[in-house]
Structures are given as structure tokens and as C-alpha cells.
Amino acid sequence: MPSTVFSPLTIGNVEVGSPVVQAALSGYSDWPMRVLARRHGASYVLCEVMLDQFLVTLRERKRTSHFLHNTSEESPVAGQLMGAEPDQFAEGAVKLVEAGFDVIDINFGCPVKKVLGRCRGGFHLSQPDVALEIIRRTREVVPDSIPVTVKMRRGIDDSEESRDHFFEILEGAFEAGLAAATIHGRTVKQRYVGPSRWEFLKEVKQTVGDQVILGSGDLFTAQDCLDMMEQTGVDGVTVARGAIGNPWIFQQALALMAGEPLPEPPTLWTQREVISEHYRLAESLYGEQRCGTLMRKFGIKYSALHPDYEAVRTAFVKVRSREDWEEVLRVNYAEDRPGCYPEGRLHRAMGSCEN
Questions:
Q1: Which terminal CB of the chain, N or C, has fewer other CB atoms within 10 Å?
Q2: What is the DSSP string of 287-321?
Q3: For all residues of the chain together, what is the average pLDDT?
Q4: What span, in angstroms and rounded, lies between the C-alpha atoms of 22 and 38?
Q5: Based on the domain organization, do 193 and 45 belong to the same domain?
Q6: d(C-alpha 349, C-alpha 258), whole Å
Q7: pTM for the full model?
Q8: Burial of 113 (C-beta count, 10 Å sphere; 0-12/13-18/19+)
Q9: pLDDT for the residue 354
Q10: What is the rounded distance in angstroms from the CA atom of residue 23 to the CA atom of residue 355?
């Protein structure tokens, strides 16, 4: 049995269940990925971040309809929002509520240079007054029945001023009615370089007491998820890059939390079935013409579980159509061989996609 008893996660009035959930991932956590994560044991999923400005001006068009697409199968699902101005941010939150998202998540964590340059994402950690005004305005316009949460990094940098700003925002957010906060253990300045400081997550949880804190950063295996919760005391963890092309990580975490041995990695036929279903779901959302090139990035991530990783990765890079996708599966997944845990391969294959 695990040394820690892991309690079911609740966010506001939303009963989530397993404390291991799928994070928001720019360019990745669309409807097909979220559905597959839910089917494989993720108790809660977040959509890729959307700009308030984009949502406010969004019109009903087929080419953009996928951004707000969500279904009952993936519920509970959060819509994540990013922006600069409190008024427009609130308008964007209303759009997410109207689209049917169960939770509204505010992004104060994105470290991408162009985002920071437009005073969005992680930039707000440098201006507590504006950050808290965004949270208050969002909480005011979102119905009481829908929780509002926030994603933060541990600060802009490692200065004392940055630390003070972090706790000023976090404590003020909970006072304003925030239901939960997800904390990434890197600073905005770090981006994705260097280790995530899990000891900071422990300090945060000890500071806020009963308030719900989820941890983020360096979760590439099911054991990582349990280790973070055991070492820091956070209420749950959000798996980001470690879940791309590997929805099985959620099943594996559930097994470990139940005191069972770590399941064997999925065999190639099991992988083939899920990879085929992923393409089918994506094609139903994006259409036949757009789907092929959009799915290449997922194929590259799935290849990390294949024993012939390099060759399969190269094959997925060349995909342009359904026929190409099926040919990769026919050639490389014909024999039901044992799969691999991705681990180090995932680190090499990942881009900067976590919000």
C-alpha cells in the first residue's frame, strides 16, 4: 500500500475524484486529447488557454468552433482564460460560461515572451493590484455555481519582491472567492529550464491551510504524481507534458494510489487502438482536410512509448493525411510487442506547451 492515503479532490462544489488531473496545454489539450484522458482515468481536464480578446470577438465559424467545443463525456472540464485588462477578461469568462465549461481557470502562469510583452499570463505576477482585480471581476460575473481557479508560477523570478507579490496575489485571490490554485514550481523567468521546486509547493500548502492547492511541474510518470503529493502535501497534481501521447499515465497513477503494482506499459496493439481513436475524434472535430497535419505533433509524442522510438517518430513527422497515419500504424504497430515507459524520451520530445 502507498504510504499516503490520497483523498478525493473537490474544487468548489465540483466533485472531481482522483487528485491526478490533466493540465491545460497550449496547442494540445483540445477535445480529443481531453476525452482520451478522461477515458483513461483523468478525473478532470482543462482546455488549452484562450485569449479574452479572441473570445469576445469570436463568431460562429467552423474553423474556430473547436476552441469552445466540449461534451458531457469529459465533464468536469475547465475553460482556461488569459488576458490583460480586467473588463475584457470578465467578458471572456462569460463566453466560457456560456460554452458550458464547469470551471473557469485564470492563467497567470504562461512564460512565453510574446505573452509577457502584451502584459498577459505570467506578467500579472508582477502587478498584484491588476491580478487581483482580474480575479474579482471574473468571480463577480461567473455564476456562484461555477468555481473560479487560477494557475500561477512561483513568481516572476527569485527576488524577495517577486515572492511577496506571489503571496499577496494568492491570499487575496482566496479572499475574493477563488476555489483552488494550481502552482507551478518554476518561475516565469525560468520558463521550462531547470527543476521545478517542489519544496515551494510544500510551503504554499502549509501557508494556505485548507485551501485547495494543486501542484505542477516535472510530472512525467505516475510515480512522480504520487511523489509530489506525498512530499508537498498538495491536494492534487496537474499532469501537463507527461500526458501528451500518454493517457495511460492516469490509469497508472490510479493503480499506484490503490496500492497496486505499476501496470506494464501498453502493448503496441493497445497503443494502436488509442492512436487510431485519437485520429478519429480529431477528424470529427477538425474535418478530413485539416486533421492530418494537426495530428503529427500527437503522433510524435505517442512514438515515445514504442520500442523503435526514433524510426516511428520520423514516420509520424511525415504524416499529411489519414492514409499516411494508417500507414504508420500498419508498418510499425502490426505486431503486438511490449511497449515502453516514455520517461526520458518524453523530455527530449516535448516543446514548450504547458501554460
A1: N
A2: -HHHHHHHHHHHHHHHGGGSTTHHHHHHHHHT--S
A3: 91
A4: 9
A5: yes
A6: 30
A7: 0.92
A8: exposed
A9: 52
A10: 8
**Cβ(11)–Cβ(179) below 8 Å:** yes
Q: Which three cell numbers stand for residue 142?
A: 461567473
Lookup: cell for 280: 478519429
> Is 98 buried (19+), middle (13-18) or exposed (0-12) by CB count in 10 A?
exposed
Is cis: bond before 76, omega within 30 of 0?
A: yes
Q: 354: which residues sit within 8 A by CB, 6+ positions away? A: 23, 24, 25, 26, 184, 192, 216, 240, 241
**Gap between the Cα atoms of 231 and 312, Å rounded:** 36
Q: In whole angstroms, what is the distance from residue 314 CA to residue 311 CA?
A: 5
Mean pLDDT confidence for 35-60: 90
Q: Nearest 5 degrees, angle CA 188-CA 48-CA 233? A: 60
Q: Give the end-to-end CA distance of the chain in Å, rounded to a whole number.
A: 34
Least confident of 11-15, 270-274, 289-293, 339-343: 339-343
If asked whether residues 329 and 188 sit together in one domain, one would say no
pLDDT tens column, 241-259: 999 999 999 999 999 999 9
Q: What CA–CA distance (Å, rounded) separates 217 from 202?
A: 13
Categorize the per-residue pLDDT at 181 as very low, low, confident or very high, splitting at 50, 70 and 90: very high
List Cβ neighbours of 186 (8 Å cut-off, separation of 6 or more). 111, 153, 154, 192, 193, 194, 196, 197, 217
Residues paired with residue 10 on neighbouring β-strands, in sequence order:
15
Residue at grid coordinates 475547465: 78
The residues pairing with 212 across neighbouring beta strands, listed in sequence order, are 180
> Which amino acid is located at 149 in the chain?
T
CATH of the domain at 69: 3.20.20.70
Residue 354 φ/ψ, nearest 5 degrees: -80, 140
* Number of separate domains in the chain: 2
DSSP 8-class letter at 6:
P
- By the 10 Å C-beta count (0-12 exposed, 13-18 middle, 19+ buried), 290 is classed as middle
Does one domain contain both 244 and 284? Answer: no
- Domain enclosing residue 160, as ranges: 9-257
102 and 238 in a single domain? The answer is: yes
Residues with a catalytic annotation lie at 110
